[in-house]
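Exercise 3.2. Students should predict the tertiary structure of the chain below and write it as structure tokens, then compare their answer with the key that follows.

Predict this chain's 3D structure.
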Amino acid sequence: MNPAEKDMPTEKKIEIIPTVMPENHTDFVEKINRIFSFVSTIQIDVMDGKFVPSISWPYNSDNDSDWQKYVNQEEGLPHWDKVDFEIDLMVEDQIAEAKKWISAGVSRVICHVEALKEDGRAEFLKLREDFDVELYLALVPETSLEKLTPYLDDLDGVQFMGINKIGFQGQDFEPKVLDKIRQLRAQKPNLPISVDGGVSFETALQLVAAGATKLASGSLIFESDNPKKTIDELKNLVRSK
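Answer key:
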């Protein structure tokens, strides 16, 4: 069975995934503590200052002891037994950093197609073979869907970046992403499609109508006074759409 078609529900279900962009380890733990009890998946957004200009924990700290404990499996990610983690790797060395985060405990890896080497397909797909993780590819609005072609039949999902300036939360939504979602949905009716960036109460319905099945949001959720209420309102908004 095609990896993209396994375990797909007969009725479309929209998942809301909060995104954590950690400034430091304390910020990382505090944000997870705010949301773990009412979500099933948390996305961790990380940047190394090379693939994108911004930089986040753990890449803004040399030999961070908390990070090393996760990688060495001396400690588990916060609430690892209650929530699944996916990692959005906005970093230069996609494969090497993916392996570290897999060791730390993530179950889904989101690599960026723009950062993968031209001959990197086999190495990328081997992550699933070696570590039994789900593999998604992300792409920015300017990247052609053709970039996904060598990978598409082997992916567990695709993540469209809904903003042009990735690595920064609170950016304006890029409408051209809607057409890309429609095109991919026409090609792959059962493929999970996530959108990260620019998700709001105004754009959520458009994204779902275009074919998105997962909406990842950071600023909308964490800047609200009540993250649970915000997530519930988003779920109700897109339910059965």
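Discussion points: Residues 176-187 form the longest helix (12 residues). The longest strand covers residues 41-47.
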